[in-house]
Specification:
- By secondary structure, the protein is of the alpha/beta class.
- The chain has two domains: 231 residues, 3-Layer(aba) Sandwich (Rossmann fold); 125 residues, Rossmann fold (3-Layer(aba) Sandwich), CATH 3.40.50.920.
- Helices cover 40% and strands 18% of the residues.
- The strands form three sheets. Strands 3-2-4-5-7-6-12 form a seven-stranded mixed sheet, sandwiched between helices. A five-stranded mixed sheet has the order 9-11-10-13-14, sandwiched between helices.
- Helix 9 links the parallel strand 10 and strand 11.
- Helix 1 packs parallel to helix 2 and helix 10 packs across helix 11.
- The longest helix is centred in the middle third of the chain and has 21 residues.
Amino acid sequence: MKKEKELLKGNYAIAQAAIEAGCQSYFGYPITPQSEIGEYLSTKMPELGRAFVPAESEVAAINMVLGAGSTGVKAMTSSSSCAVALMQEGISYIAGDEIPCVLVSVMRGGPGLGYIYPSQGDYFQATKGGGNGDYKLVTYAPSSVQECIDLTYKCFYVSQKYRTPVCLLADGQLGQMMEPAIVGEYPYPEIDQSSWALDGAKDREPRFIASIEREQESLQKRVEKIFKKYNTILENENIFEKYETEGAKLVITAFGSIARIAKAAVKMARKNGMKVGLFRPILVNPFPEKIVSEIAEKVDCILDIELNCGQMLQDIKASLAGVVSIPVKFYGRPAGMMMTVEEIYKQIENVYKEIVEKKYGTACI
């Protein structure tokens, strides 16, 4: 029977999607603006005979996830910003141990304690990582409540398929807002973990999982193997949105919740005759550099819009280095007031006049 849309809060939608995805173990510590995820699961998980543990700290939570994930079960935690910072060592261990897990990061303002304002200031935290060594935290960034659901499913699937930690990078606005959405059935096949999981050596030789490698060559091979997986994920599991990029002279880049506002501004610019498009990476780590450079080869300028002081901007510029030379402009705002459509439209108009009209004249409009 086809499910109907219902009005759902982002955090509750993520929590229910985790249940539908088969999450068997949740470990977490409350922090605004994501506390409703744990609140929701605290009731639902025990009812289903699944594990819900309110950890004594974020450090404890991520290490519980490591332990549960090592048995092959679907394990998850959720947190926010300054609290995710405490998990970085554990995330590095999980990546090094090649253990599947899902981390939901609902960003708030920072640095430090900051406050509960919506922000995208933890893009660096999710995509560059604070843990030690060579690893990536595979990261998907939703822009709607429906995508919070769909990408929660994707995070569980990718983590299980590639044995890697995967992050759902939302923000306070997405976590708290309500939209019509459908929590459908988990759409991905289940992955057999029996070949490596620590599920009890009753009729087989004991197994051992650790990230330590005493021989240099062994450590090099381990890291190379991990990075080969990231390349495969970028090739096979990449998701992005292109809107009106074909024939555009100016392309806006944005991710997450601000991208939907930027898209409305692009529509406004199109109505006023400006050849503007939008590119939204949904898989933000590994970053889709090739797609960005291909878009850049056909446009005259990129305007990057973010709710921070320019974090994805560095990945945009790196994508163009040595490939194409065009101006890359930036408009951002750290945690606080959300940008309006009209505000972004004004930035588009200014950059369009400065770059595009200067090159082609008003005939380009």
